[in-house]
Amino acid sequence: MVRLTTLWALALAVLYSVIFWIAGEAIIRSFTDIVEIRALAMGFLHWLIVMPVIAVWSYQFDGIFIGATKTAAMMWTMILAFAVYAVALLVLVPRFGNHGLWGAMMIFLAMRGIGLALCYPWLVRNQIGDTPREIGP
């Protein structure tokens, strides 16, 4: 079931990215008729296009770990991801402005997904089998 939901999640993430790529300008136009705001928003559209494919992994693994009632791994990976995000903010925002903020957010989402992906084999070995065992802090 995890494999199937992961395929669905990835397919929908790619679909959203394609929609944002094709219709991004129209979506932005639907939010405002102020030309300057539209132009400014268009400069950040590429972040919106890549976000679903980067973010899908953290959200997919959130669902898996919540479903298994093993949220401690989520907490620890969130703390790690936030620490990396904070450093990324300090480094990227002064140099790249709002693009640095978006980049730091992508790094945060990627770190959450990577962290939970690294914890997933432990979950499969120790929690999803016939005899779940408690471990962790």
UniProtKB/TrEMBL annotation:
Keyword Transmembrane helix tagged: yes
Transmembrane stretches, start-end: 6-28, 40-61, 73-93, 100-123
Gene Ontology CC entries for this record: membrane
Protein name: MATE family efflux transporter
Keyword Ribosomal protein: no
Molecular function terms, GO-annotated: antiporter activity; xenobiotic transmembrane transporter activity
Record keywords, A-Z: Membrane, Transmembrane, Transmembrane helix
